[in-house]
From TrEMBL:
This is TetR family transcriptional regulator. The keyword Zinc does not apply. Residues 19-79 form the HTH tetR-type domain. The keyword Chaperone does not apply. It comes from the Bacteria.
Length: 223
């Protein structure tokens, strides 16, 4: 084989089978990391769940740290796109309120997570692990900071002269409330004697909560 042919062989696009295997591995990694965190997860368990030989996990995912990074990153771009599309569509209708902005951030993910069989619920648990651990700063900076800054800027623009740290805090609390809501709907329903919470009205209440909290911080900071 000539050098040129050899280079062409190396650059050949992955086969459909290879892409399907990698997707299965990332699905399994997402589930295992979400359930057990980084330390509790093992490559062996990921391979078993994906039903692939152990060596294929390393082949497609690299080291455990690289696999964790890939598991976090692969859905982040899609979620950011959905949030931006919703925000731009709302802005095209006219002036927006803070509630409009936060709804465009919160609702796309909650709706995805509440759709059975999509894997987005597990992804939320994975994001919770990342958000709670400063050692994953580089992952959050790459995967989540751009969209976070966009929405922080949108809220800050509604309050000229606001201390941006207050808006940033409101954003972090909004993310935390969203993840808590998704993982604790059952608890709300138990305390409310079984009244269903996982519905559009429940998302409305979550957004109301996030808006009220952020507004209260901004008002107190501006006093």
């Amino acid at each position: 084989m000539t050098a040129k042919a050899d280079e062409k062989q190396r650059k050949r696009a992955p086969s459909k089978r290879s892409l399907q295997t990698k997707a299965r591995i990332l699905d399994a990694a997402e589930q295992v990391f979400a359930a057990r965190g980084f330390e509790g997860a093992s490559i062996r368990d990921i391979a078993a769940l994906a039903e692939v030989p152990l060596g294929l996990v390393s082949h497609h995912g690299g080291s455990k740290e690289e696999l964790f990074h890939q598991a976090v990153a692969r859905r982040a771009k899609e979620l950011s796109r959905l949030r931006i599309e919703k925000l731009e569509a709302r802005k095209a209708l006219g002036p927006v309120s803070m509630r409009d902005v936060l709804d465009c951030f919160v609702r796309p993910y909650v709706s995805l997570a509440q759709t059975p069989g999509t894997g987005w619920m597990a992804y939320g648990r994975l994001v919770a692990h990342v958000s709670a651990d400063p050692r994953w700063r580089t992952i959050t900076a790459e995967c989540f900071d751009p969209i976070a800054q966009r929405f922080i800027d949108e809220v800050a623009a509604l309050f000229p002269g606001v201390d941006k740290a207050l808006v940033a805090a409101g954003h972090v609390y909004t993310v935390a409330a969203t993840l808590a809501y998704l993982n604790s709907v059952w608890r709300i329903e138990d305390l409310a004697a079984g009244a269903p919470e996982a519905n559009a009205a429940g998302i409305d209440r979550l957004v109301d909560f996030c808006v009220a909290g952020t507004e209260a911080m901004i008002a107190r900071g501006s006093a």
